What we know:
Strand content: 5-15%
Strand order of the largest sheet: 8-7-6-9-10-11-12
CATH superfamily of the largest domain: NAD(P)-binding Rossmann-like Domain
Structural class: alpha/beta
Number of helices: 12
Low-confidence stretches: none
Enzyme class: oxidoreductase
Bound molecules: NADPH dihydro-nicotinamide-adenine-dinucleotide phosphate, the ligand O=CC(=O)O
Catalytic activity: (R)-glycerate + NADP(+) = 3-hydroxypyruvate + NADPH + H(+); glycolate + NADP(+) = glyoxylate + NADPH + H(+); (R)-glycerate + NAD(+) = 3-hydroxypyruvate + NADH + H(+)
Number of strands: 12
CATH topology of the largest domain: Rossmann fold
Number of domains: 2
GO molecular function, one term: hydroxypyruvate reductase [NAD(P)H] activity
Function: Catalyzes the NADPH-dependent reduction of glyoxylate and hydroxypyruvate into glycolate and glycerate, respectively.
InterPro entries: D-isomer_2-hydroxyacid_DH, D-isomer_2_OHA_DH_cat_dom, D-isomer_DH_NAD-bd, Glyo/OHPyrv_Rdtase_B, NAD(P)-bd_dom_sf
Order of helices and strands: EHEHEHEHEHHEHEHEHEHEHEEH
Largest sheet: 7 strands, parallel
Amino acid sequence: MKPSIVVYKKQPADLQQRLEQHFAITQFDDITEENRAQVLDALQNAEGLLGSGGRVDKDLLDHAPRLRAVSTSSVGYDNFDVAELTRREIPLMHTPTALTDTVADTVMALVLATARRVVNLAERVKAGEWTENVGPDWFSIDVHHKTMGIVGMGRIGLALAQRAHFGFDMPILYNARSQHTEAEERFGARKCELDELLEKSDFVCVLLPMTQQTFHLIGKEQLAKMKSSAVLVSAGRGPVIDEPALIEALKDGTIYGAGMDVFEKEPLPKDSPLLSLPNVVALPHVGSATHQTRYDMAACAVDNLIAALNGDVKQFCVNPEVLRK
Ligand SMILES: NC(=O)C1=CN([C@@H]2O[C@H](COP(=O)(O)OP(=O)(O)OC[C@H]3O[C@@H](n4cnc5c(N)ncnc54)[C@H](OP(=O)(O)O)[C@@H]3O)[C@@H](O)[C@H]2O)C=CC1
Ligand SMILES: O=CC(=O)O
């Protein structure tokens, strides 16, 4: 008999077929408050769980006594209770390499769009405001040769450093827990304390995972250290930035602007003050959302689940200590 799995994300047709060759599938589009009872019911029998986005907590795991592997179609895993999975000796698999370049492209797009006011100016053109040669009211700030500050020099940080160095000839400062020699040797990046990075960077790109240590790492005090001409780009996880503090900093000119792909609450509420600020470019958490990359992530997640349920994990395990037991 094929092992039973619960899938809570719609799969491309060929990947769905691949899953069906290996498993008996109970399919959901997501895990929501509305369907949680049905998901919990399906989990009673499930040996595998595949999806992304929904919260996988202790209560959910308590309803999955036969679960042997979990696979997420994302690199971030802050919505999973990793400690609880590890205690139960369940490997959690993720998709770290498939999306790196696409997310770095998105971050660079936010840098350019915010600095050069691409969205704001395009909206003014569409509104019929371009009636004569433009003056300073339409001007923006340069990106090339300015200092790029990267908070979180992981896979995406490194890919951003590559773009900033070769594409825009930018000096690069970075902050991370460890030293990243590849970024230093290939892209001339220099490691520094967060305060120095905030004070000296023209663009502060925050690419951190959401953890207890990173929650609200960038708040009022940190924003006050930034140049008034600087741009903050947030593309790691929303709660890393204290959003009310950022809104104040954007309103009172503490910083020039913000490019954001992630928010404290997603989807961003319609009444968020961020939506009415002309110096904000807001994207709907689409860092990795190209057709190709989302397919590659889904394929990686399917491969990961098959490998994990076959006891054949070679890479991409968040809690590899469970494999050694
Ligand atoms: N907007 C989007 O659509 C997407 C967002 N993401 C988010 O981006 C995050 C980063 O992805 P990725 O680059 O692949 O991850 P990595 O794990 O490769 O990089 C994370 C980086 O964060 C650093 N870091 C972690 N905690 C701290 C801390 N307390 N202080 C300073 N630095 C810290 C790490 O430092 P060190 O190297 O020293 O360990 C590392 O450099 C993901 O966790 C996810 O949340 C990812 C994909 C898409
Ligand atoms: O936010 C997206 C991810 O893959 O993590």
